[in-house]
Every structure is written in C-alpha cells, then in structure tokens.
Amino acid sequence: MADAAIRTTCPYCGVGCGLIVSPTRDGWAVGGDPDHPANRGRLCSKGATLMDTVTAEDTGPVRLLHPMVDGRRTGWGEAVNAVADRLAAVVAEHGPDAVGFYVSGQLLTEDYYAVNKLAKGFIGTPHVDTNSRLCMASTVAGHKRAFGADVVPGTYEDLELADLVVLVGSNLAWCHPVLAQRLRAARRDRGTKVVVVDPRRTATCDFADLHIALPPGQDVALFNGLLAHLDRVDAIDREYVLRHVSGLDEALAAARADTPPDVEGVELFYHWVATTPKTVTVFSQGVNQSSRGTDKVNAILNVHLATGRVGLPGATPFSVTGQPNAMGGREVGGLANQLAAHMNPDDPHDVDRLRRFWRAPNLTGGQGLKAVELFEAVRAGRIKALWIMATNPAVSLPEGDLVRAALAACPTVIVSDMVTDTDTQRFAHIRLPAAGWGEKDGTVTNSERRISRQRPFRAPAGEAKPDWWIVTQVARAMGFETAFRYRAPVDLFREHAALSAFENDGLRAFDIGGLANLKPRAYDALAPVQWPVPAGTSAGTARLYGDGRYTHANGRGRMIAVRQEAPAERASLRFPLVANTGRYRDQWHTMTRTGLSPRLAAHRPEPLVEMHPEDAAAAGLADGALARVTSRRGEVVMRVAIGEAQRPGEVFLPMHWSDTLSARGSIGRLVPGHVDSVSGQPESKHVPVRVEPL
Ligand code: SF4
To answer: Count of CB atoms within 10 A of residue 677's CB?
Structure first.
C-alpha cells in the first residue's frame, strides 16, 4: 500500500514513540522517528521488533480474516445485520441498560469516539467501560479531585529538566523504556537524582540513587509523612497555597496523624524533596492498581500542590499511562463515569450539552458499570449483550474464572479483534475481524497529552475493517444513519475536536477546537501536538497549571485529606505471601502480538513466580521447580525463580500469559475483584497467596 516511508506511532505503551516505516525489497523496516518529540529517534525492544510480529501475522494462522456468526463464516453485510438485530432485540425486550461495551486503550481515538457515540448517545446505555479501568482509573479520579480535570500537567521534557525524579510504583526501565532512556541520559549529563519507591528491586533501581523498598500498600503513609516533614522544615510554599490551593489544613492534619513507614532511606528522601524545587514525581500502576489507589494519587498530588510544583519546567507530578491510547479513550468518554470531551455524566448541563451536539435523544447520562461491575452484571444476567473490542478480558480481568463463567452465560457476546484465537473469543457468538496496527488510520494520545497520527502502510488482512467502520455500519443498520455518516477517520476526528470546544468557555481543560476544521490533507499531515489546542491556535500546550489556575470552578487546586489504610485482603496463615503483578520488559498485555516474536520471547520465555530465597526454602522449592500458586480465588502453575529482588514475604507474578499460552498460567484467576471505592480500579498489586511444590 505505502510505496514510500511513512511516519506513524508505536502501538504498545503510553510513551507513544514516533516511528518511521520504510518499504524494503521484502516488506518494511521500522525505525525511531528522530523528529517525534516523545522519543527523538529512540526505540525499545518491543518497538524495534514490530516487523517480526507483522511478518508472523502474514505467514501464520494468526489473523481473524472473515466475520463469523455462530461459528459460520459470513460476509460483512450479514455480520453487521446480525449485530444490529441482536442489539436491537435486547434493547426492545430488556431496555438499553441490558447492553454493555468493553473496549480498549488499543483502539484509536476515532474508533473510541464512534463506540461511545453509538452506545451512550444512540443505543442509550451508559455501560461502556474499557481496559483502561485496570490501568489509569485511580489517576483520573485523583486528578479530578485535585485539579478539577483529568489532566497530566507536565511534559516528558520535565524528566530531563528536573534535579530530582521520584518514581513511585513505576518500573520505568521495563514499562516505559524510552522514557527511562531519556531519564538515564539526563542523569548522566546533568546529575539528576533518581529515587525509586517500589517493594521490588526492579531494573529501574539500576540507575537509582536511592531505592525505598516500601512494603506494599504504604504509599499514603509515605507521602503523608513527606507532607508533614515539609511542614516541619518550612518547605511548604505558603504564599502559593494562599493564592491557589484549598484544603492544606485538613490534608496536613490527616498527614500528621499517620506514621511514616519505618524503611531505610525515607529520611534522606524527605530531605531531598524538601530541598529540591525542581522535583518531578512519576507514578504508575504500582500506585493505581490498589483498593486505595485514588488516595495514593492524591497523597502524591498534595505534596506538589503544597510546594507549588505543578506544571512548571522540571517540577510537576507526572502520571505515565500504560496503553498507547488510554488518554485518547478518556478524551472521548471511554470510561463508564465519563462522557465525551471530558464531560460529566452526573452533570445535567453536560448531558444536555452533549445531547444537543450529537442530536442524540437517547442520551440519558448517569454513570455506567465499571469493568468489574460490568462483568458481574453479565454473570448475573442483567447484561444480555456484550460487545468486546480489542481486548482479552478472559485473561486480563480479576476474578478470571468468574469472568469466563459470565461470558459463557451471556446470550450475545460480540468480539472485534485482529487475531483469530484468544481466550475471550472462544465465548463469542459473533466475531468481527478488525484491522490492526499498520492497517489502521487515526490518532492516539500519549502520557504527555500528545496527539499523534497512526498511519497505515499496508492493506488490512483478509476482510478486516477498521473499528470505526464496523461501529458505523452497525449504527446505520440500527437506524442511526444521519448521525453516522462518516466516510473516513478525519470526519470523526473533526467532530470530536468540534465537540471539545462546544460551549466549553474554559469549563473543561480538554479543548482541541483548533483542530476542528482540519482538511483531510492537513489531518493526514498532522504533526504531534499536545492538547489543549483551543480554537485559533495550532501549536499545542506543553504544560498546564503552571500559573496556579486550576480547572475547579473556583480556579483553585484542592488538597485532599487522606489516611493510610490497609489493602482489602491481608496475608494469613493459609496465604502467607503477598503477590505483586506486573509486566515483563519484552511482552505486551496478553501477548497476542509480542508473543509472535521469537526475539522478544528470548527475554523471558515463560512466566516465573519470583520469590525470596527464605520463602522458597520455607516452601521447599528450588530454583526452576514447578510450583502451584494459590489465592483465595484460584490457582496457577509456574516455574520458580529465586532471587533477592523480592522482599521476604512477597512474590512477583507476570500478567501476560493466558491459559492458551501456558496451561493454567493466567494470573487473572488469582486476583480478587476488590476495587478502589472512588475509581473502581481493581487491586492487582496486593494478592495474598501461598506457593507450594506441584
Ligand atoms: Fe513502543 Fe513504548 Fe517502546 Fe516507545 S517505549 S517503542 S512506545 S513500547
């Protein structure tokens, strides 16, 4: 399809690296885009091996090539009608609330926009949630409480401008490798101090000046202790707080009531933060994936608000997202507690505004079911039809056995995916072949709010189609032709941009009205740009809130009084170890793409339960032995890797393997469905287990 080099974006992590894909005699070659601000030509192992996976897709039975209805190959016309008819029948018999959508941060913004418009605006169900719930929901909630909007105030360059970078619950070296490369270079060139706060000694600790091996779940105590320390040494910026921040007294009172963790390095950490104005705190899933995740986020944000270190060069809190388009999905209302353009489903003005913009009489507002609740509703029979796009919840969600039972019991399961066989697809009544990376055309937004283009360089495999096209066809078949007249992704993008500016008047931070009139050629050539991009502008905005004006109606940032609380489940005599779950450097999610690359598999060919020598000895386990890992929910089988990276009493489990790839290797069956009461994000980082010889 492409006979010249094209610029596009990596489909993996939230760094959002720019790529150049060039035609070769045999296919294509991929390299880092030196002009993309996120990576400036750098790549990690996953990005550099993207063509391995494309080749494997072409040469093996990997792709879903044709629509399938009830196990039978069909054309698109029949498949689209089957989806439309079954959704309409459920709405007619049980009401719109009986329809659910579970989508993905792998979708492009244009795909995501179409899904939300169809589901919330025209079918009239609020039940649209996404795998971003497992990733970023606590940060979204924390940002909204503190700033009044789901906004990351900083830009990647801040990691290079800071004198101190604190990484909390983030194995940046493995999970955001190009950002880690940038930080390492800054440390080498200008002596940036790096602190890692993590129960494990991860690869990121290799370039840290200080590792605080914090026991799991004690982040609030750590940051409350820091806030109280800042007060004691007079490092709170009282003038800034007076002018720009509410809630200091209450937050300080709560902070003083907590006891800082008794862990080596804490006092030095507090001293460094107090004496280093240019401090950036990077936080990620180790903070978010917790039954207290939102409070943890706010404990971090409190420190930055109290010191006025928000949205300034080299001084800001910085959440790094896991997925390539977790932020783009939020922009279009991809969470059950959001509407498009960051509007609030509980605000009648926002609901009315969106209803009028979309001319969508079925839009009712109100919050939908969040991921764990959604699958509980499927299992209970309240959701009768579920459409899953670009994600594999049978492997990735907590309560894996219950999720599988829910899918087995659901009368209509529709799955759109690019690959032909996932644990989730086995439950599908209708399977729709979706175009994949290299075939799709649209935009994604990375962790620094930067919108970048994904451009196609080859034709879709078989009869695969882009997700926005599939949704549009179904919408038309359901009778919503007028609202779904899109012919190309640019049509969706322009509408999305226009909506962001519609009756905005500074109410919402997300505003890309300056991109609402892009002609197709300008959209195609769109250079990476950070939102907001208000009407009349095009350059984007690197930082937000640096002037102390926040999105809350009174313009002030808000400190939240939070207290240290225990995780939802504790270790016990039967389950004496605490399992922490996470990524490997060279795998991505449930391995449907990275699992195709032998080069990537060489890093860690199989899942390993990593444990401290004392715990392994107590359990009678040798390095390399097969072990059964059991929680209160289920069990998995893995080989043991003994090492001192784990603290005694804790083990680490990789999240990637499905039962298809490794018999009983899917750790979702171990993780309980405890969620943060504010964000709905599950607690995947604190799972009591026992490990014993098989
Ligand atoms: Fe892709 Fe992330 Fe690696 Fe960049 S750091 S190449 S976005 S996986």
So the answer is: 12
H-run or E-run covering 164? strand 164-168
* Cα(46) to centroid(ligand 1), Å: 6
What residues pair up with 451 in beta bridges, in sequence order? Answer: 445, 529
d(CA 345, CA 351): 6
Task: Calculate how far, in angstroms, residue 209's C-alpha sits from the geometric centre of ligand 1.
Answer: 25
Between vectors from CA 208 to CA 652 and to CA 182, what angle results, nearest 5°?
100
In whole angstroms, give the CA distance from residue 493 to residue 499: 10
Task: Name the token pair of 274.
Answer: 């107090």
Structure tokens at 444: 């994604």
How does pLDDT run across 265-286, given as a tens digit for each residue?
Answer: 999 999 999 999 999 999 999 9
389 vs 387: CA distance, rounded Å: 7
**Residue 593: its pLDDT value, please?**
84
- State residue 462's pLDDT score: 95
The protein residue whose alpha carbon is closest to atom 6 in ligand 1 is 47
Classified as helix, coil or strand, 547 is: coil
Q: Name the residue of 7, 9, 12 whose CB sits within 8 Å of the most ligand 1 atoms, as the mutation to test its pocket.
A: 12
Mutate which of 8, 19, 39 for ligand 1? The one with the most ligand atoms within 8 Å of its CB, which is 39
Over residues 74-123, the pLDDT tens digits come to 999 999 999 999 999 999 999 999 999 999 999 999 999 999 999 999 99
Strand (E) or helix (H) holding 332? none
* Cβ neighbours around 362 below 10 Å, total: 16
Q: Which helix (H) or strand (E) holds 211?
A: strand 210-212
Please, what are the domains in the chain? 6-59 (3.30.200.210), 68-134+325-485 (3.40.50.740), 137-320 (3.40.228.10), 577-693 (2.40.40.20)
Residues 6 or more apart whose Cβ sits within 8 Å of residue 234: none
| Torsion sign across C-alpha atoms 137, 91, 400, 432 | negative
Q: pLDDT digit string (tens) for 201-241? A: 999 999 999 999 999 999 999 999 999 999 999 999 999 99
Place of tokens 């350059």: 539
Crossing angle of helices 467-477/109-116, nearest 10°? 20
**Any idea how long the chain is?**
694
Instruction: Provide the pairing of β-strand 442-445 with 430-433.
Output: unpaired
As a whole number of Å, the CA-based R_g of the chain is 24
Q: Are 623 and 556 in contact (CB under 8 A)?
A: no
Residue in 105, 532, 561 with CA at minimum distance from that of residue 311 = 532
d(CA 572, CA 153): 41
Q: For 601, phi and psi rounded to 5 degrees? A: -65, -25
Question: Would you say residue 399 has pLDDT above 70?
Answer: yes
597/586 Cα distance (integer angstroms): 10
Question: What stretches of 371-437 show up as alpha helix (H) in DSSP?
Answer: 371-379, 393-396, 400-409
Question: How far away, in angstroms, is 325 Cα from ligand 1 center?
Answer: 12
Mean pLDDT over the full length of the chain: 95
pTM of the model: 0.96
ipTM greater than 0.95, yes or no? yes
- By the 10 Å C-beta count (0-12 exposed, 13-18 middle, 19+ buried), 253 is classed as exposed
On the CB side of 295, CA atoms within 13 Å amount to 23
Q: Which residues contact 521 (CB under 8 A, 6 or more apart)?
A: none
661 pLDDT higher than 70: no
- Residue 229's closest CA among 250, 251, 255? 255
Q: What is the mean pLDDT of residues 661-670?
A: 77
